[in-house]
What we know:
Blueprint: H1 2-27, H2 42-54, H3 58-67, H4 74-86, H5 90-102, H6 110-122, H7 126-143
Amino acid sequence: MLRLALQRVSLSSSSSSCSRFITGSASKPSLSIWRRKKELGKEGLIITKELKRLQTDPVRLDRFVRSNVSRLLKSDLVSVLFEFHGQDNVFLSMKLYDIVRKEIWYRPDMFFYRDMLMMLARNKRVDETKRVWDDLKGEVDETI
């Protein structure tokens, strides 16, 4: 009797979890990469630290970007970019902005531009803001 009750419980719980899995993942569209939670992983922390250390030496910074930043996963690259947004580090944010836009997986996204423009406006960086705005207008024109 106890076995029969346990079998019923296990069957009912496995069938309901299976149906939740199928319907839950298939019916919801995925979030844009710019709207997802951005947590820095170990690799992202190391890259962030090194970029901040090397930002005063342009030659070593460019060499580091070519050798290490280009190897980052998409999620780590976006996390590092938004870490610099949070720190209001305009120079490194613009550097990573250029890198992200050159990536093969990059697609224009309004949240990406919104966050860049808000960070630049908060820091009163007019020239960089105009550049990002022109990039946004150019990408909107390309998609139409």
